[in-house]
């Protein structure tokens, strides 16, 4: 990641009232070190539970490479309550935060009461404590909730450990599957399998449905599938082909691409009354729409200037604005959750990388270092981008944190993984 | 012969004097920023009129063997005055220039120590990823002459509590800025006894 580090020191003037001011713009490249202490257990509770919960939390917190952990073999003590906790035991080990907890039995039905605390070792203060009640067979999900709270307390960002990914797998046998899984790749569910290509999955804001494109009937057709019932419904928009569906933030409409006589343009489609509203009307290809978080604008890719570039259109006034000018390939644009920046695929000299651009700035910042990146999707807390990329012939999902400190790849699936779509948060 | 020697002596004295002036003006050349006035003045002196510099010496009669040894000091003074007048400088100017050099050297010291402090804080500050917000917070530091941090205070917190917490955590990791030990005591008292650290969330990408 390209960084501009402006060494700037504002020196005193001669006035006796002035004071030296030193500006600090750059932060450390080091990661916060966290000690995940095995949780203590009450008599009568299976001893493994304490260790399991601590391990689940540790695994979640380390998933995207944002933190480092303290190896348990280095720990000097194993406190499970505040009165057993001594800051010096952790400070000498260079730990920034410690997580401790205790598992108590609630009743004979197997319900557990799990209490947990988070300590800032440098500041010598407890910054979080909480309790959660759940059943023995739900320990993994309970650990996700605790992980979310810890993550939020340390970073100030919403935890994403209970979010999901949708993606398309193209196996060796030319079978296409649309799948969803937990963010760590576990609990994979196949939603639909076809011999014809499937593409462009997108989550409804309530996380109950997924829209995607399937070629099962010969032409590109949009389907909406209910995740609970598995029921699929074709979106009967007009035109020859329909593609690239994206849910509006209120879940009431889709932005999509409709092609009349081979010329793709961007439209809005109301799910309730099936009304189609044209947004663009150009002889060039207009495709890959995506909503701004406030629903007022849509970003899309168009080759109207001669090469694929990103444009923004106001959904009411239909006023358009070109957003990218650098390079001859900028496509698949998406807004950050704050609406102030966009990320997209930036092509340069045959390399296709994920880039971001602040809308207020003209500079593009390349985020990835691989060369065949596509279909970026952002975590709902705006901190991590996952994208499809290739290692030889195999497609896999890579990821990067926005501060550039961590790069990772998600567990390899059987077959090429493409077009990841990150689910929204559960409110 | 004697007269020739006297003239040669005079010439040597003048050259010595000139080299002294030049050496004074040459001190900041290595360290001082081009924009600073001292260097500019120096160049003005030699660049404004190159010909003047080359032709002034014969004009002052330094090459001629007509001066008597007895009138040496008077002539030398006259020559000095002529040089000062020709080069548009006087003794006050020299004093001012020297004090400017001293100030520049002090400024360099302040910059050097500030840059080290900046780097040390940056190395322990784990900055929250706050892309959407432009945040600023100011910390006042009270330092002992030994470099020990006696006290610090978040005098102007930002609107984001996590940003403020990250700063306090970083500040708690610092105990000494021993770099100030290399400073002149007066310079320390004027600049580093109390100073501010201004933390900014954005600045890496614009």
Give me the secondary-structure topology.
The complex is a heterodimer of chains A (427) and B (206).
Chain A: E1 9-10, E2 21-24, E3 32-36, E4 40-41, H1 48-62, E5 67-69, H2 87-91, E6 97-105, E7 111-120, E8 125-135, H3 139-155, E9 164-170, E10 176-182, E11 189-194, E12 198-203, E13 209-214, E14 221-226, E15 232-234, E16 241-247, E17 253-260, E18 263-270, E19 276-278, E20 286-291, E21 297-302, E22 309-314, E23 320-322, E24 329-335, E25 341-348, E26 351-358, E27 364-366, E28 374-378, E29 384-391, E30 394-401, E31 407-409, E32 416-422
Chain B: H1 2-26, H2 37-47, H3 50-59, H4 72-86, H5 91-124, E1 136-143, E2 149-156, H6 161-172, H7 185-191, E3 194-200
Helix pairs in contact in B: 1-4
Account of the protein in words:
- The complex is a heterodimer of chains A (427) and B (206).
- Helix content of chain A is 9%, strand content 45%.
- Chain A is mainly beta and 427 residues long.
- Chain A folds into two domains: 32-155, Rossmann fold, CATH 3.40.50.10070; 164-422, TolB, C-terminal domain (Neuraminidase).
- In chain A, a hairpin with a 6-residue loop joins strand 10 and strand 11 (189-194).
- The radius of gyration of chain A is 25 Å and the shape is globular.
- Chain B has seven helices and three strands.
- In chain B, strand 1 (136-143) and strand 2 form a beta hairpin.
- Helix content of chain B is 55%, strand content 11%.
- Chain B is mainly α and 206 residues long.
- Residues 23-70 of chain B have low confidence and may be disordered.
- Chain B starts with a helix and ends in a 6-residue tail after the last strand.
- Classes of the chains: A mainly beta (427), B mainly alpha (206).
- At the A-B interface, strand 2 of A face helix 5, helix 6 and strand 3 of B.
- Strand 2 of chain A pairs parallel with strand 3 (194-200) of chain B.
């Amino acid at each position: 990641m390209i960084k501009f580090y402006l060494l700037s020191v504002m020196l005193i003037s001669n006035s006796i009232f002035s004071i030296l001011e030193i500006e600090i713009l750059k932060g450390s490249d080091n990661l916060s070190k966290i000690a995940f202490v095995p949780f203590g257990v009450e008599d009568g509770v299976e001893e493994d539970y304490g260790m399991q919960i601590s391990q689940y939390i540790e695994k979640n917190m380390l998933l995207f490479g944002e933190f480092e952990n303290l190896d348990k073999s280095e720990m000097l003590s194993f406190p499970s309550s505040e009165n057993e906790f001594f800051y010096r035991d952790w400070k000498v080990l260079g730990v920034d935060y410690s997580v401790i907890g205790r598992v108590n039995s609630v009743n004979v039905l197997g319900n557990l009461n799990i209490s947990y605390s988070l300590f800032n070792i440098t500041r010598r203060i407890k910054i979080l404590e909480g309790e959660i009640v759940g059943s023995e067979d739900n320990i993994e999900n309970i650990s996700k909730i605790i992980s979310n709270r810890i993550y939020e307390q340390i970073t100030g960002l919403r935890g994403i450990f209970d979010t999901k990914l949708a993606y398309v797998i193209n196996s060796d046998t030319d079978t296409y599957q649309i799948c969803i899984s937990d963010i760590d790749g576990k609990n994979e569910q196949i939603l639909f399998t076809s011999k014809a290509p499937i593409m462009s999955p997108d989550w409804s804001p309530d996380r109950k449905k997924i829209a995607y494109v399937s070629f099962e009937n010969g032409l590109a057709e949009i389907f909406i599938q209910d995740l609970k019932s598995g029921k699929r419904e074709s979106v009967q928009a007009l035109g020859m082909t329909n593609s690239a569906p994206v849910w509006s933030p209120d879940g009431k409409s889709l932005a999509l691409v409709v092609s009349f006589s081979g010329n793709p343009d961007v439209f809005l489609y109301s799910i309730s009354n099936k009304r189609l509203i044209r947004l663009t009307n150009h002889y060039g290809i207009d495709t890959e729409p995506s909503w701004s978080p406030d629903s007022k604008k849509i970003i899309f890719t168009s080759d109207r200037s001669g090469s694929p570039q990103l444009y923004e259109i106001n959904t009411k006034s239909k006023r358009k604005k070109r957003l990218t000018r650098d390079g001859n390939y900028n496509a698949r644009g998406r807004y950050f959750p704050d609406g102030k920046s966009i990320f997209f695929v930036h092509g340069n000299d045959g390399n296709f990388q994920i880039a971001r651009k602040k809308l207020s700035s003209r500079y593009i910042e390349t985020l990835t270092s691989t060369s065949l990146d596509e279909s970026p999707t952002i975590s709902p807390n705006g901190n991590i981008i996952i994208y499809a990329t290739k290692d030889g012939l195999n497609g896999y999902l890579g990821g990067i944190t926005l501060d550039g400190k961590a790069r990772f790849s998600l567990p390899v699936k059987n077959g090429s993984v493409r077009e990841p779509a990150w689910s929204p948060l559960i409110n | 012969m004697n007269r020739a020697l006297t003239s040669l002596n005079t010439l040597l004295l003048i050259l010595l004097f000139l080299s002294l002036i030049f050496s004074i003006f040459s001190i900041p050349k290595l360290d001082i920023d081009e924009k600073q006035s001292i260097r500019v003045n120096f160049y003005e002196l030699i660049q404004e009129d190159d010909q003047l510099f080359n032709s002034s010496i014969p004009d002052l009669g330094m090459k001629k063997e007509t001066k008597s040894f007895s009138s040496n000091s008077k002539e030398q003074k006259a020559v000095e005055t002529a040089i000062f007048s020709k080069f548009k400088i006087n003794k006050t100017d020299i004093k001012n220039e020297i004090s400017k050099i001293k100030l520049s050297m002090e400024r360099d010291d302040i910059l050097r120590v500030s840059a080290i402090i900046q780097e040390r804080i940056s190395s322990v500050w784990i900055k929250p990823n706050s892309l959407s917000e432009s945040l600023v917070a100011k910390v006042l530091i009270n330092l002992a002459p030994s470099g020990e941090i006696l006290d610090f205070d978040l005098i102007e917190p930002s609107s984001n509590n996590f940003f403020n917490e990250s700063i306090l955590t970083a500040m708690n990791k610092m105990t000494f800025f021993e770099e100030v030990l290399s400073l002149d005591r007066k310079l320390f008292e004027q600049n580093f006894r109390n100073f501010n650290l201004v933390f900014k969330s954005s600045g890496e990408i614009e």
